Amino acid sequence: LSAIGGFVDIGDLVFNTQAGALFGFQLLWVVVIGVVGIIVYSEMCGRVSAVAKRPVFDLIRERTGFAAGLATLVASEVVNLMTCAAEIGGVAICLQLLSGLPYRLLIPLAVVGLTVCSWILPFEWIERLFGYLGLCLLIFAVAAIKLHPDWGEVARGFVPGSHAGGTTMVYLYYVVGLVGAAMTPYEVYFYSSGAVEDRWGLGDLGLNKVTAMVGYGLGGLLSFALMIVAAVVFLPRGISPEFLGTPPLAAEHVLSQAGLLLALVGILFAVGGAAIETSFSGAYNLAQFFGWKWGKKERPAGASRFTLSWLVIFALALLVVMTGYDPVKLTEYSVIFSVVALPLTYLPILLVANDRTYMGAKVNGKLANILGVLYFVVILAIAVAAIPLLVLTHGGRG
Amino acid sequence: MSKAIEVDIALGILDHQLVDRDGQNCGKVDDLEVAGLDGNAPEVVEIIVGGNAWRSRGLLGQLLARLSGDAVHVPWSEVDSVSSVVTLKRRAAELRLNRGDDRWAHLIARLPGS
User: Fold this and answer.
1) Fewer beta carbons within 10 Å, N or C terminal of chain B?
2) Interface pTM (ipTM) of the complex?
3) Measured between CA atoms, how close is B35 to chain A, in angstroms?
4) Is B3 touching A (CB cutoff 8 A)?
5) Prediction pTM value
């Protein structure tokens, strides 16, 4: 399960719990849209990587040219850095809640820990360590069931429609944010680069499909759980989870101390894994844009620019978090800005997945194309709406 | 190049990955030098990689070109084949490519466990 680190990150955590606390179950349908979207495009990326051996940022440069590619690179590096910083902030908050040590001290410790893990462990081990311990997040699914929500109401949440409570602008802001959090571009950068590193071939196309569906499907399931828990626990009490330590309290509310502990460990490792993914995505993108040697499997000094890139991204992210800027706000901004970079990331994938000179017989089938085009329209719409909604709603605060 | 191939220069070569004889990435086709544009047999004579090659490629490219050094010129005769990547006949170092990695290699090599 190579997508395992990426099933839930800080963006999903923040947007799903806030959406649940504000709108109850009414935004569950958006999670479905986001998850199907990331499955569709991840499957395409993985297939392109397996057949044409080309990772996403290679394609972005080849298809959109130098100038647009460079603009996409700059945008994605900024978003990657913000996201990496937010994830590190999340790791530090979890460590603080687990240990009681001061947050400011734990930030550099978190970065050192993540850097050392990335330096000494092969990706298979990083995936296992962060992926499996991240599965502690399933405690939120247990909590969601134990809370005995009105399942009829939950089911109605999967039908898009008019909403009760909150303004339409804020509702739309969360629609954009939830799709953005589910379809964050760094996930496909990382996924496709990992597939090329693992030398996927035609025999791995089945594995690619399963990985995309199971990995992101699991992410969707956890997103439902987070939103349902927030809807039942926070909404009636008027609690707005603007602190990252709030969602685990819901698990504690239902399952006492053990629930709190599992929730914190789950968040710690899911978010920690995502921090590693974002720093490597940043390095992959730079290397693939400029044509450098790259890869975790290369000798670090042999691909020195690639190695230096991910180390520098960790260092810069450390500086950003040390400013003391709220990680939750950082997350919101990074997700909304990433939405703006979505079209230039996903269009080249769609074009190349249809190009027989790259793909031979493995070009997109009818279903992949219908969904691909449909989602591209969705992505364009939310990319246009993202910044205006951010400004008009003051970051979803109405 | 002995084999004749038909390829769209803008879509099939420009901005594609350069790979050396050993299969190592060694830059991108950042620009192409074409001779004989006024005659009826224009010909690609050089691949230009990095640095000043970005000058002609948009505002951000100009800025980037200023910050980096000279471009490396690779004669087209060094090209072995063109697929989704452009493969060269020799090693990157022999063509003065990938010098950026050499520059930082000493620093990274000093880190424990590298």
Assistant:
1) N
2) 0.92
3) 22
4) no
5) 0.94
